[in-house]
UniProtKB/TrEMBL annotation:
InterPro entries xref list: 6-PGluconate_DH-like_C_sf (IPR008927), 6PGD_dom2 (IPR013328), Mannitol_DH (IPR000669), Mannitol_DH/Oxidoreductase (IPR050988), Mannitol_DH_C (IPR013118), Mannitol_DH_CS (IPR023027), Mannitol_DH_N (IPR013131), NAD(P)-bd_dom_sf (IPR036291)
Pfam families: Mannitol_dh (PF01232), Mannitol_dh_C (PF08125)
Keywords per UniProt: NAD, Oxidoreductase, Transferase
Keyword Oxidoreductase in record: yes
Species per Swiss-Prot/TrEMBL record: Conyzicola nivalis
Protein name per its UniProtKB record: Mannitol-1-phosphate 5-dehydrogenase
Lineage: Bacteria, Bacillati, Actinomycetota, Actinomycetes, Micrococcales
Amino acid sequence: MRTDAPALLDRRSHGASRPARVGIVHLGLGAFHRAHQAWYTDRVDTAGEWGIAAFTGRSPEAARLLDAQDGLFTVVERGEGGDAFHVVSSIVEAHDGADLARLSALVAAPTTGVVTITVTEAAYLLGADGALAADSAAVLADLRPGAAPTTMPGRLVHALAARRDAGVGAIAVVSCDNLPANGAAARASVVGMAELLDPALADWITANVSFVHTSVDRITPRATPADSAEVAEAIGRLDRAPVVTEPFTSWVLSGDFPAGRPEWEAAGAVFVDDIEPFERRKLWLLNGAHSLLAYVGATRGHTTVFDAISDPVCQDRVEQFWDEASAHLTAPGLDVGSYRAALLDRFGNSRIAHHLAQIATDGSTKLPLRAIPVLRAELAEGRSGRASAGLIAAWIAWAAEAAHIADTRAPQIEAALSLSGRARTVAMLAIVDDDLARDATVVDLLESLLAATH
Ligand code: CS2
């Protein structure tokens, strides 16, 4: 009987004649990056020129775990019919994001052509006007003389200064977060920070950094200890950092890569001139429905997306929201009908345990991107926007009952919830859209929707 545990994954035994050279620097070493951009790069970088050096944002532990197994990890593609296992070896260095010296050295290297980012929507630190929130505590902390930056824009500006000083030239920065016009959001965040630190550097960044727009898609819930055990069984090695994801994946990009890039289209990525219709379709239909399920589903006692979408009441709410959003998704080639049908299949994957609590986080940042644009489009056409207003009402009802609200704006949410009646509804709406909070018709609608949830 074999009693010894399998050995840890490592590059040599994996037979990895894999990239030794870093071509991509990544900020935000989470599961989504590994299931998505690292997976695409792994599939296409046969010449080994585009190894990834990944830096953590908030959890240095992720770098330690990966480093101990030479950056290798398993992507478990979990379909209804079973699991497929792929060992991915495109990450060649994993670091604590606080290692600014290594970050700067790599961004300043002539062989580095791309910086990718997955740090979540809130970490761009943008205000309602789309500009860097210069008075936020995180930005102010980064601006203190001699401070080691901890924010995404602070760290990236620090590293881009090194590239400018090295005289190495242009580079692409590719946001892979769920924001509309995420390239412009990255530009606003990074150039905004540079303007506060060093206006000449802001000019250099504007002239030399290509901020690429992308729409990224792959449902990637957190992996569990049971997943590690399953991977050990399947690949015969111990993997302390596996990623579990759905079989579906999509990556749409638009923009220039002045210092080259991997041929991601060989793994299915699509390059387009106008990305806006695609990002709207994804943000409104997928992410909007996710948020709706997170709040309505949790209030109805469900735990995962699969549980919630299996409840006809939740599915009906999703369909109503989709009907409303679809009226504004009219660009050619979107094929909204097939997209919706595919989403129902994806949400209905019974083997993916995507926890509603994970999706419910940061509602104050997500709803302005997922619900408000649909509501505003409806109002502009003289309709009430009942289904998108219903998503906002669901968030308010959920927050009022939640034991814990994981949100970068939790203090404002708690202050709003301490009010009662209409004042509370207005204060919550103001967190996601200040202007709409002054619209009595919208507030009336929210009040009636909230009354109906009791
Ligand atoms: C989810 C997304 O957590 C969330 O807010 O809606 O992470 C979603 O799973 C991805 O965008 C899918 O591509």
